[in-house]
UniProtKB/TrEMBL annotation:
Keyword annotations from UniProtKB, A to Z: ATP-binding, Nucleotide-binding, Transport
Name of the protein in question: ABC transporter domain-containing protein
Entry keyword ATP-binding: yes
InterPro entries, A to Z: AAA+_ATPase (IPR003593), ABC_transporter-like_ATP-bd (IPR003439), ABC_transporter-like_CS (IPR017871), P-loop_NTPase (IPR027417)
Database matches in Pfam families: ABC_tran (PF00005)
UniProt organism field: Promicromonospora umidemergens
Family: Belongs to the ABC transporter superfamily.
UniProt cross-references to SUPFAM superfamilies, sorted A to Z: P-loop containing nucleoside triphosphate hydrolases (SSF52540)
SMART domains on file: AAA
Keyword Acyltransferase among UniProt keywords: no
């Protein structure tokens, strides 16, 4: 059964009075419970696209549907109360406590004090900041990472169907950024919120996104597909250039060890090295093989859920698993969209060629 569409952009365009086109005929759908990561170079319209969804920016043309309703016909204030919004610098009210910040939208909606306090406590537990310790603190008493987590809690206060996140982890150091990404992934898995995440970081997009939408300058959609499909089969030179080097290493972090990647367990040298689990990321498997002593003959045991040995894995097995993942990505539903993007780009190039009349 196909997932329900929560957000749909239909030929959305944003042009300004000076003739600048920020977004050009953008169409894509966001499925229920998924994280769609919008990536692309600076000036490609990522943030503009996000802000059109909650009408902080008004589209010039096209339709944006939220659960089937055209947002351009909705009251913008009421619309924004239904959509969570998290930005890079959080935007907490500096003279209000953590509890008061998280309570902002519930208060506007008329929630009573008991219900609001229960929700604040629940959300603070969800983001790992217990209410007993943090509810009465002020933003200046928090670290950057703590403020970011409070921003997520505030955005989730009324359990919105959609969460918009604009470079939410960009203001923290790389080490803690990875930690926040992991925490956010756990929160999203628990809440099931539908998320559009804007980021300039392809690694963050691949780590957090169920699908990635790659935009190029002028707000043109180059490809929308799973992270593996984007990395293994870029739809255009623009996508390939944005991804840059290192696609194989990124794919190691996305693909998993499967039974058909393994060889017989009876070839494992005893005493057996530390095992990896069936379903582990190929990154973990690669590190395990790389750490083997010479006596292990380049082979690690792979165990199932029960802990019993399922088979053995070698460097060749990891390479085969990587190829398998790339082949599987080629069958991704986004591949058709990617092909459309290539054909559109080719058609545009022909039409723009000097001396040619446009096709009619």
């Amino acid at each position: 059964m196909a997932a329900r569409t929560v957000i749909e952009l239909d030929s959305v365009r944003k042009a300004y009075g000076d003739g600048t086109v920020a977004v050009e005929e953008l169409s894509f759908a966001v499925r229920e419970h998924e994280v769609l990561a919008l990536v692309g170079p600076s000036g490609c319209g990522k943030s503009t696209t996000l802000r059109m969804v909650n009408r902080l920016v008004e589209p010039t043309s096209g339709r944006i549907l939220l659960n089937g309703e055209d947002v351009t016909t909705a009251d913008p204030v009421a619309l924004r109360r239904r959509i969570g919004y998290v930005i890079q610098n959080v935007g907490l009210f500096p003279h209000r406590t953590v509890e008061a910040n998280i309570s902002t939208v519930p208060a506007l909606l008329g929630w009573d004090r008991k219900r609001t306090r229960a929700r604040v406590s629940e959300l603070l537990d969800l983001v790992g900041l217990p209410a007993a310790t943090y509810a009465k603190r002020y933003p200046h008493e928090l670290s950057g990472g703590e403020r970011q987590r409070i921003g997520v809690a505030r955005a989730l206060a009324t359990d919105p169907p959609v969460l918009l996140m604009d470079e939410p982890f960009g203001a923290v150091d790389p080490e803690f950024r990875r930690h926040l990404q992991t925490e956010f992934a756990q929160i999203q898995a628990e809440t099931g919120t539908t998320v559009i995440l804007v980021t300039h970081d392809i690694d963050e997009a691949a780590r957090l996104g169920d699908r990635i939408a790659v935009l190029s300058r002028g707000g043109r959609l180059e490809q929308v597909a799973s992270p593996l499909a984007v990395l293994a089969h870029p739809a255009s030179d623009r996508v390939r250039d944005f991804i840059g080097d290192g696609s194989a290493s990124r794919m190691l972090a996305l693909a998993q060890v499967q039974a058909n990647d393994l060889e017989s367990a009876d070839r494992i040298v005893q005493p057996a090295p530390a095992p990896v689990r069936l379903g582990a990321r190929l990154t973990d498997a690669f590190e395990a093989v790389a750490a083997l002593p010479g006596s292990a003959m380049g082979r690690v045991p792979v165990v199932g859920e029960s802990g019993s040995i399922f088979g053995s894995l070698t460097a060749d097995g990891i390479l085969g698993a990587l190829r398998r993942a790339a082949d599987a990505a080629a069958a991704d539903p986004g591949a058709a969209i990617a092909q459309d993007a290539r054909e559109d780009a080719t058609e545009d190039a022909v039409q723009d060629e000097p001396g040619r009349e446009p096709a009619v």
